[in-house]
């Protein structure tokens, strides 16, 4: 199976244009829901596989707190594009909740997706970034250099998957992500887990 990474919004557009994807692992729930409504997925294949977590990463400044963003210790803050990437929207919501969205406009560097935002910080082009916790764990970043943003500061980053084409590989991946083994791996890499029963009758995702 070939993995193609990119911004959720951009890949959604590619799927609508006929991109030959078998499975779509989105970083939100809106695009999978839209694909389901448009009849673009295998029936009953949509499910929540993870809840993303946002973190403030400051590679040159240990033990950051939320007050770091009100200091002059950085020139640029990397985020993903809020219009394309769910983690970017979460970053915007967090900054807005602290009345920092407008004051920091001249310092924001927007990546097309969360991976590009990571590259801005990793390369030194930005001194700080609002990134996915999973990225920091994958890069083995010490806890001393990031601050886990309180989940109540942004809308839950409900990440859903859909099967676009039936195939043995697509079915195997979907089954694995929902299995005990798959959920353990997902949690290990910095995601919160949805309840076994994805949603209640109102379509609300529960996190544990």
From TrEMBL:
Determine if Signal is one of this entry's keywords. Answer: yes
Q: Which NCBIfam families does UniProt cross-reference here?
A: modA
Q: Could you tell me the superkingdom of the organism this chain comes from?
A: Bacteria
Q: Which UniProt keywords apply?
A: Metal-binding, Signal
Pfam families hit by this protein: SBP_bac_11
The similarity annotation says: Belongs to the bacterial solute-binding protein ModA family.
Identify this protein by name. Answer: Molybdate ABC transporter substrate-binding protein
- Can you supply a Gene Ontology BP term from the record? molybdate ion transport
Gene Ontology molecular functions: metal ion binding; molybdate ion binding
PANTHER family reported in the protein's UniProt record: MOLYBDATE-BINDING PERIPLASMIC PROTEIN, TUNGSTATE_MOLYBDATE_CHROMATE-BINDING PROTEIN MODA
């Amino acid at each position: 199976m070939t993995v193609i990474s990119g911004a959720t919004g951009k890949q959604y557009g590619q799927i609508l244009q006929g991109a030959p994807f078998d499975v779509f692992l989105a970083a939100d729930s809106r695009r999978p829901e839209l694909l389901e409504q448009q009849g673009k997925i295998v029936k009953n294949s949509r499910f929540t596989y993870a809840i993303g977590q946002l973190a403030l990463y400051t590679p040159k400044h240990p033990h950051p707190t939320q007050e770091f963003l009100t200091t002059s210790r950085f020139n640029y803050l990397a985020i993903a594009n809020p219009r394309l990437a769910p983690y970017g929207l979460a970053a915007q919501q967090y900054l807005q909740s602290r009345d920092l969205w407008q004051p920091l406009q001249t310092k924001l560097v927007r990546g097309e997706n969360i991976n590009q935002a990571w590259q801005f910080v990793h390369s030194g082009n930005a001194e700080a970034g609002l990134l996915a916790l999973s990225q920091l764990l994958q890069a083995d970043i010490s806890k001393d250099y990031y601050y886990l943003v309180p989940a109540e500061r942004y809308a839950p980053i409900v990440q859903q998957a859909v099967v676009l084409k039936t195939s043995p590989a697509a079915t195997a991946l979907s089954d694995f992500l929902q299995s005990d083994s798959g959920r353990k791996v997902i949690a290990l890499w910095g995601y919160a887990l949805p309840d076994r029963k994805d949603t209640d009758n109102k379509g609300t995702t529960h996190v544990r």
